[in-house]
Structures are given as C-alpha cells and as structure tokens.
Design a protein that fits this description.
Number of strands: 10
Distance between the termini: 53 Å
Strand content: over 45%
Oligomer: single chain
Length: about 190
C-alpha cells in the first residue's frame, strides 16, 4: 500500500468513526396522553422521542439492590408526568455507569439512592427529580397485543351541546423498547 492509499483509508476510517460516535440527540416531545399511541404504528420504528417523567428501579427480586442487579437485564420504570403518582406507563433500557446519560448504583444503595447523570454529566437522585427523557423507539412486529387506548377527540352531540370525550378503543399494539437514552432536566 502506498502513502496516498494509507492516507485515504485513514481519512475514511476517521469519517466513519466521527459519524458513528454522534452524541445522543434530543427527541421530539410527546405529551403523556399521546404516549400510548406510539406503540400502535410501525412507522414509529426508529423515531427519536422525548417525554417528561420520574425514573425508578423496582425491586422485583425482594433482595438487596446491588446483589441481584444485572445491568444487561434491567429496565428502569418511568412514571410519565400527567398520569399521577404510581402510574408507570413505560420502561427504558438505560446505560449503567458514572458517565453522562447513565444510571449509577452507589455501593451501599437503596432504591432511593440510585443516581441519574444528565447529558451534561450532572447527577441527581432518580426518584426525586423529574427528567426529560429522550429515547429511540424500537417496535417488535412479532410481539403484538390488543389494548384499550383512549381515542382522543370523539364528540358527543347532546341537546345541551357538544362534549369532547376520550373513548377507549381496542387497538393492536406492538411491544415497544426504548433505547439510546438521554437524560436532561425539563
């Protein structure tokens, strides 16, 4: 290989490296009441979204946090703003560590001690801070279910006038996974 070929290959490698290591982008903000509809349309595959909520890790093992956590097989629950306390509507697949956009478990941690580092690297207690979470949608077309989802905008005409209703509709949904998580403050 001559010098110009090595130089060209080096430049191509550098361009590929830079394009693949692009920082996580902020997603398009989705209102809590429209969030469920994202899993009903395969056109949402790969879209980048953002939503506001509170992050927590549930203790499904009944044992200590540090002892049984497998970072490759754990999801964080997100209570979306606007649905009331305790209404966990979705789960995210976070990255674990001490860097930006990661969750961290201190050595002697309880679930209240889980930390979340935002995109700028600042850490906050997960359960005490509302975050704007950006994520990439992945829909599994092979895993579907039927769910009642509020259909916004139905209008009922009565003798007293019109009323706007949210009537639940039975809709096909696809299993949704949210990855490439970015944490910011709203």
């Amino acid at each position: 290989m001559n010098f110009s070929t090595k130089t060209s290959l080096g430049l191509v490698s550098l361009v590929l490296l830079v394009s693949c290591s692009k920082p996580l982008e902020m997603g398009a903000l989705v209102a809590a009441e429209k969030f469920e509809l994202l899993s009903t349309d395969l056109k949402n595959e790969g879209k980048r979204i953002a939503f506001d909520g509170f992050v927590s890790i549930g203790d499904t093992s009944g044992f200590g946090l540090k002892t049984y956590i497998d970072p490759d097989n754990i999801n964080a629950a997100v209570t979306l703003e606007g649905y009331g306390e305790g209404s966990r509507l979705t789960y995210i697949k976070p990255s674990f560590g001490k860097g930006a956009n990661q969750m961290y478990f201190p050595e002697k941690a309880s679930f209240e001690d889980v930390l979340v580092a935002t995109n700028d690297g600042k850490s906050f207690q997960a359960m005490k801070q509302k975050f704007r979470i950006s994520a990439t949608i992945h829909l599994d077309a092979t895993k579907t279910s039927q769910r009642l989802i509020s259909a916004e905008g139905s209008v009922l005409k009565t003798f007293a006038g019109e009323m706007k209703l949210n009537i639940p509709k039975l809709m096909q949904t696809y299993e949704m996974t949210l990855t490439d998580i970015r944490f910011d403050l709203p």
